[in-house]
């Protein structure tokens, strides 16, 4: 599971195949010469948190590691999407060989350099665009890759066909390969046949895997009425009748012979195509197979296929583009493969879209494509927010944040439920932009003075969404929508509004090994603050428990500066907010008191009734048993027994009298109990609760009952104060007054 | 799901390419699951097939390019896993014979445990078919699969050629094409296979019921399958990680075990770090680490951190599970209770000052009680090996040990925080901790994820202040020209004797060392110890630069924390980050 937190698209290539009356055709694929790895899955790397154990290996080991990393990192930068081309696999191989100290893979390096020279031209602009996050991700990727190659190399014999193929193609590059005969080890014709399923398998998820290589797609077949989409509102009578026909004849084997209304719709006049299929070829690691395939299908494949279907329906887009690409390929067939591909991607928007998609997905970036002048974005969401601490030794993306309460946490990450945009707590959160507002506005191509642009400019880490709504005059639902959008598209992160009273700790996920590297960046932003390491030290090492951030702020004038720094640290995952959670604890004293009262009442009752002595005594006994939580053991032999007997007894008071072993509890000694859900307390529990606040001033009691339902350890006090609009002083007063009865826990 | 947690097989079928009828299902389990079957023969026949077989024909028996590979595909809500085989031989009616034994699973289930076996089965059937046409002849009308008899050698030949065949089989086993001579017509020499149907039936039932099967086919071949889960690779471990057994390892030892494994086993106790285990067991560190990784892979060991009273722990967001999980709290009670508290069975020396333990004097008398208790609670997941309460003395005296209440335990976990060392925590709560073994208490919390270890990272103020660490770091990172320092050399008095020692290290080590050496020493008598100190400083500064925590630094340098702190203080200002 561990590495599932890291993006790993393992995409080998994208294919577009169509079916016409003349047969199947593979229209376009990207990259021009994909690597196939001999059908093998991506080997799963060990998760390395600390690569250095230099005491036990050579003393300069970490230097080498770091150098390797850098080298690797540079080679990827220069080689630009190395892995999009045949060189990718080999470069992995060569680096791995070095790190294993077994010499350089000559074959690999030669391929690598060959790949570089080609690619340099192709993606010049792309290279410049690479942002920091991307670099970091590459680095991470390489850490993983570097570790796994030893494994890959051992099975070198398996691999040799693919490598030699890659090598061959590179050497052929000079003599201009103009035609692709084989793709992924298959004849091109066979590939198109493989990804052209019969009609029954169309319009639903398609997946065929050959050994470790998967062909994933959503084949779109034209409906029998000639429409590509099933439109909910029938446009004409003809539409209706034809759809009826479709229902009745749904068992027909294929629709290829079914083009009766061929000439009736002007847009489909010249469309001989009856099926198209955008196929993603992947080789996910064996144990992540289902996860990676699901992820890709859900976020990219299906959405993209539906988009193409929409465009095909509207303007015959896929067919027109396919024709264009096929014509271009014919026309350019004398050119070398890479020039062909370059020209085609320049001229055909569909081919360009495939190329862009491939590159972006391979780098786990957001895909921004333009079809018919409309901007579309896709992404596989990246997991950078965690509600609980992932297991030790799990590798995460640097800068991941922790919060068990944030409603933004699982945004878009759950495959099976749509994003919950209507969480009521969401409005109490604030946003921290991950980027400069103006560049975000530019990136999302919003109008400079549009609503969202103005909204983005207003975002401040100290203002909650509800306040932003008031300030901007926008509807709160709209603000939520914008906020969701920004968080989902990796532009912002959500936190509780910053306040100098908040308590922050250095996050257990903090990327501390980068601390000196980031120190520079921190200094640029905050030249007047202590260096990053010292600043973190200030935050983390106060006396005996974490304290509010204002204890380190020297004066009121420094407040904004320090809060800005806090926002910066939150954004980079260095710190996390410590929140307070409350539990109601019923002490034994309270229980005894209540018990006594009950006793009194019962006695009074009994005196009134003066009968049925025995039964009420029984009742008494059972009562004792139910609330008694094993405190003293009389006999040694009973010891293990009473341990198991007490298992889970004190927490579910709903089922009393289940506890055995009352023999050993002559002394009535009660035990403290923590109520898990005070809101739905039983009658006895309600008496206990009432007892807890007995004798307190009225305001404390009122506040107590207001907060009672939150005393279940689920809602943080910090959120409560914003939500219920309670002042800090009142809360403090309450906590002091009920010190004995409220157990507080602080975590994120 | 079968009982072992493996996904169960929904259906199995065996399909062949018939020379005249095309792809067809020869047998299927359960009956009627793939193609409609005759209900009169089998009452358990499914009413309707799971999916439309016709639409996947081309994937069940694909073109030769896909054959002899594991092929899986999705059809409606199922995943079909198969290994299509195609054999060329001139004696077949179409010069080739194709078949596929397919397994059908739920689409979303994890089929990885089966995949290797499907492949192996396919290869075995291929070999059987090549050797003796076992599959093609199993068909009632098997003549369909072959060319008319007259083309073949005279029948008599085969009867006399048993001997020849055996020799030939060895050579031919792996070849794709077959010559006519290999065809056997005599039933006697062919493998005994009642029917493919019964074989498929048995595989299906055994795998679903027992997750394994042992089905003999003939004297030389059998279908032996045992399902194993495919587990992710274990994490990379550090020298300072502390393994603790989650099963009773010593009961599993086998004479064939790896010698290192056997050797280190007694030292896996939740106290010793991996490095320490390797030293104690006199085993190679690297091998030790790999052994522990193996144990982790099979989930018989979990990883903790070194237990020290200077450690800090803090609750995680999972702390609520302590109350919500009905078992956790009582398991905790059973695990942490100790009549004598943490220090009861230590030969108390220094630690005495940590907590006043009123029960200490009684230690020996009560431990027997604990001993019995421990032997009873077999359901504990971690073996309490180390805290062996060996003292089996008197049992006459009865002793009352108040079981710490769940609320108390919860409270104790809750009052840990990021800045509170265990020492301080113990002092604050010593009354409540009288009958609790703190180490076990912490171990339980960490393993269940309700508390986490707050690691302490020393940071040198030098890196962040006196040197512009940013430029330094970039030059450090720049692998191409590491020898080009950008820093201001004038502030760094590089002395000669330092250079001598730091030859092995690269430039910025010298730099750091130099920077740390602003206050020069000139004690010639203590030169040797000074050298040692220098080397330690170099090492420490390297670790510091990477921002490692104290556990790692201490393990790497093989020094107690106290001495590391001393060196750090000598090197200049430093502070800590608790994370």
Write the topology of this structure.
The complex is a heterodimer of chains A (748) and B (579).
Chain A: E1 11-20, E2 23-30, H1 61-79, H2 87-99, H3 106-122, H4 124-129, H5 132-154, H6 156-174, E3 182-183, E4 186-187, H7 188-194, E5 206-210, E6 213-217, E7 220-221, H8 237-248, E8 273-282, H9 289-315, H10 317-331, H11 337-347, H12 349-362, E9 367-371, E10 374-378, E11 385-386, E12 401-402, E13 430-433, H13 437-443, H14 451-458, H15 465-472, H16 476-488, E14 492-495, E15 503-506, H17 515-525, H18 532-540, H19 559-571, E16 575-586, H20 588-609, H21 613-627, H22 638-645, E17 673-675, H23 683-692, H24 698-707, E18 712-716, H25 717-723, H26 728-737, E19 742-747
Parallel strand pairs in A: 11-12
Antiparallel strand pairs in A: 1-2, 1-8, 3-4, 5-6, 6-8, 7-8, 9-10, 13-14, 15-16, 16-17, 16-18, 16-19
Chain B: E1 11-18, E2 22-29, H1 57-60, E3 71-75, E4 78-82, E5 85-88, E6 96-106, H2 112-132, H3 134-138, H4 155-159, H5 162-172, H6 196-210, E7 212-216, E8 222-226, E9 242-245, H7 259-264, H8 274-280, H9 285-297, E10 301-304, E11 312-315, H10 321-324, H11 328-336, H12 363-376, H13 406-414, H14 422-428, H15 438-447, E12 451-454, E13 456-460, H16 461-464, H17 469-477, H18 496-501, H19 507-516, H20 527-545, H21 550-557, H22 561-571, E14 574-578
Antiparallel strand pairs in B: 1-2, 1-6, 3-4, 4-6, 5-6, 7-8, 9-10, 11-12, 13-14
Helix pairs in contact in B: 8-9, 19-20, 20-22
């Amino acid at each position: 599971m561990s590495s599932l937190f890291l993006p790993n698209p393992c995409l080998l290539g994208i294919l577009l195949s169509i079916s016409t009356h003349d047969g199947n055709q593979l229209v376009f694929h990207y990259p021009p010469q994909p690597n196939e790895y001999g059908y093998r899955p991506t080997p799963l790397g060990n998760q390395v948190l600390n690569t250095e154990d230099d005491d036990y290996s050579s003393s300069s080991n970490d230097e080498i590691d770091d150098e390797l990393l850098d080298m690797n990192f540079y080679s990827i930068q220069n080689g630009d999407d190395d892995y999009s081309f045949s060189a990718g696999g080999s470069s992995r191989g060569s680096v791995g060989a070095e790190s294993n100290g077994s010499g350089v893979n000559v074959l690999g390096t030669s391929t690598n350099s060959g790949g570089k020279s080609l690619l340099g031209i192709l993606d010049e602009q792309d290279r410049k665009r690479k942002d920091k996050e991307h670099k970091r991700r590459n680095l991470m990727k390489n850490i993983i890759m570097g570790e796994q190659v030893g494994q890959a190399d051992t099975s070198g014999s398996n691999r040799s066909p693919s490598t030699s193929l890659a090598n061959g193609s590179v050497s052929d590059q000079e003599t201009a390969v103009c035609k692709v005969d084989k793709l992924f080890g298959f004849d091109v014709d066979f590939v198109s046949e493989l990804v052209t399923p019969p009609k029954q398998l169309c319009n639903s998820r398609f997946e065929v895997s050959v050994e470790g290589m998967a062909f994933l797609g959503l084949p779109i077949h034209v409906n029998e009425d000639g429409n590509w989409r099933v439109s909910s509102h029938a446009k004409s009578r003809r539409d209706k009748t034809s759809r009826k026909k479709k229902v009745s004849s749904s068992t027909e084997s294929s629709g290829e012979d079914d083009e009766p209304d061929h000439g009736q719709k002007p847009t489909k006049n010249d469309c001989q195509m009856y099926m198209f299929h955008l196929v993603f070829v992947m080789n996910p690691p064996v144990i992540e197979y289902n996860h990676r395939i699901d992820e890709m299908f859900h976020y990219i494949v299906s959405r993209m296929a539906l988009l193409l279907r929409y465009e095909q329906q509207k303007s015959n887009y896929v067919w027109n583009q396919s024709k264009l690409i096929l014509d271009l390929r014919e026309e350019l067939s004398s050119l070398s493969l890479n020039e062909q591909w370059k020209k085609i991607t320049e001229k055909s928007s569909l081919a360009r879209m495939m190329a862009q998609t491939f590159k972006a997905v391979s780098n786990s970036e957001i895909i921004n494509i333009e079809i018919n002048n409309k901007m579309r974005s896709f992404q596989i969401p990246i997991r950078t927010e965690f509600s609980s601490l992932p297991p030790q030794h799990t590798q995460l993306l640097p800068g991941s944040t922790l919060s068990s309460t944030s409603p933004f946490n699982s945004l878009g990450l759950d495959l099976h439920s749509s994003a919950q945009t209507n969480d009521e707590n969401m409005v109490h959160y604030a946003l921290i932009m991950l980027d400069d507002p103006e560049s975000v506005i530019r990136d999302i191509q919003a109008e400079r003075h549009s609503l969202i642009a103005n909204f983005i400019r207003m975002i401040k880490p100290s203002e909650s969404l509800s306040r932003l709504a008031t300030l901007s005059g926008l509807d709160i639902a709209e603000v939520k929508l914008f906020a969701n959008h920004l968080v989902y598209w990796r532009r912002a992160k959500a936190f509780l509004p910053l306040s100098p009273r908040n308590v922050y700790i250095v996050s257990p996920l903090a990327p501390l090994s980068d601390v000196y590297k980031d120190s520079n960046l921190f200094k640029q932003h905050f030249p007047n603050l202590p260096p990053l390491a010292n600043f973190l030290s200030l935050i983390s090492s106060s006396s005996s428990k974490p304290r509010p951030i204002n204890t380190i702020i020297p004066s009121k004038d420094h407040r904004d500066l320090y809060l800005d720094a806090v926002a910066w640290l939150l954004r980079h995952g260095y710190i996390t907010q410590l929140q307070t959670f409350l539990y109601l604890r019923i002490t034994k004293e309270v229980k005894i008191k209540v018990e006594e009262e009950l006793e009194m009442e019962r006695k009074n009752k009994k005196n009134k009734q003066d009968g049925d002595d025995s039964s009420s005594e029984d009742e008494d006994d059972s009562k004792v048993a139910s609330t008694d939580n094993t405190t003293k053991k009389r006999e040694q032999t009973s010891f293990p027994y009473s341990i198991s007997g007490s298992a889970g007894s004190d927490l579910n008071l709903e089922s009393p009298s289940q506890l055995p072993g009352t023999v050993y509890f002559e002394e009535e000694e009660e035990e403290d109990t923590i109520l898990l859900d005070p809101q739905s307390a039983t009658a006895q529990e309600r008496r206990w609760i009432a007892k807890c606040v007995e004798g307190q001033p009225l305001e404390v009691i009122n506040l107590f009952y207001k907060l009672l339902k939150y005393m279940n350890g689920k809602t943080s006090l910090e959120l409560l104060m914003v939500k219920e609009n309670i002042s800090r002083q009142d809360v403090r007063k309450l906590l002091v007054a009920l010190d004995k009865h409220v157990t507080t826990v602080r975590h994120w | 799901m079968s009982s072992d947690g493996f996904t169960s097989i929904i259906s199995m079928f065996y399909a062949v390419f018939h020379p005249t009828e095309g792809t067809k299902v020869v047998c299927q389990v359960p009956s009627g699951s793939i193609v409609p079957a005759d209900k009169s023969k089998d009452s358990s026949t499914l009413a309707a097939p799971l999916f439309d077989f016709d639409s996947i024909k081309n994937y069940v028996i694909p073109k030769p390019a896909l054959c002899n590979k594991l092929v899986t595909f999705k059809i409606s809500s199922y995943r079909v896993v198969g290994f299509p085989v195609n054999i060329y031989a001139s004696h077949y009616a179409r010069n080739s014979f194709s078949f596929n034994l397919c397994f059908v699973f739920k689409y979303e289930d994890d089929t990885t445990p089966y995949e290797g076996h499907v492949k192996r089965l396919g290869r075995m059937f291929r070999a059987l078919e090549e050797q003796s046409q076992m599959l093609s002849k199993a068909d009632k009308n098997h003549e369909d699969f072959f060319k008319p008899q007259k083309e073949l050698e005279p029948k008599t030949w085969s009867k006399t050629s048993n001997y020849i065949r055996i020799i030939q089989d060895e050579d031919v086993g792996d070849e794709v094409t077959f010559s006519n001579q290999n065809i056997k017509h005599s039933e006697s020499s062919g493998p005994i296979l009642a029917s493919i149907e019964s074989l498929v039936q048995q595989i299906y039932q055994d795998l679903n019921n027992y997750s394994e099967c042992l089905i003999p086919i003939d004297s030389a071949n059998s279908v032996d399958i045992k399902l194993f889960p495919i587990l992710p690779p274990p994490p990379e471990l550090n020298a300072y990680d502390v393994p603790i057994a989650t099963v009773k390892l010593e009961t599993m030892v086998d004479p064939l075990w790896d010698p290192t494994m056997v050797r280190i086993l007694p030292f896996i106790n939740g106290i010793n770090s991996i490095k320490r285990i390797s030293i104690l067991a006199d085993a190679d560190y690297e091998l030790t680490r790999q052994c522990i990784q193996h144990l982790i892979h099979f989930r018989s060991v979990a990883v903790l951190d070194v237990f020290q009273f200077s450690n800090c722990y803090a609750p995680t967001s999972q702390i609520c599970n302590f109350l919500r999980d009905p078992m956790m709290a009582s398991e905790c009670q059973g695990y942490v209770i100790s009549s004598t508290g943490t220090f009861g069975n230590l030969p108390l020396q220094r630690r005495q000052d940590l907590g006043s333990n009123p029960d200490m004097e009684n230690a020996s008398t009560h431990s027997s009680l604990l001993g019995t208790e421990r032997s009873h609670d077999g359901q504990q997941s971690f073996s309490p090996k180390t805290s062996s309460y060996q003292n089996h003395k008197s049992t006459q005296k009865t002793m009352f040990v108040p079981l710490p209440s769940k609320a108390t335990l919860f409270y104790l976990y809750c009052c840990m925080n990021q800045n509170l060392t265990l020492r301080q925590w113990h002092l604050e709560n010593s009354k409540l901790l009288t009958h609790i073994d703190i180490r076990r208490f912490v171990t339980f919390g960490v393993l269940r994820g309700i508390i986490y270890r707050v690691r302490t990272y020393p940071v040198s103020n030098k890196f962040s202040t006196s040197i512009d660490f940013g430029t330094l770091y970039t030059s450090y990172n720049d692998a191409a020209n590491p020898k080009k320092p950008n820093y201001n050399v004038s502030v760094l008095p590089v002395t000669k004797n330092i250079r001598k020692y730091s030859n092995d290290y690269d430039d910025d080590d010298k730099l750091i060392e130099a920077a740390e050496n602003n206050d020069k020493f000139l004690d010639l008598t203590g030169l040797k110890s000074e050298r040692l100190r220098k080397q330690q400083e170099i090492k420490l500064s390297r670790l510091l630069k990477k921002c490692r925590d104290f556990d790692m630094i201490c393990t790497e340098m093989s020094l107690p924390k106290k001495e590391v702190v001393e060196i750090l203080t000598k090197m200049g200002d430093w502070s800590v980050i608790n994370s």
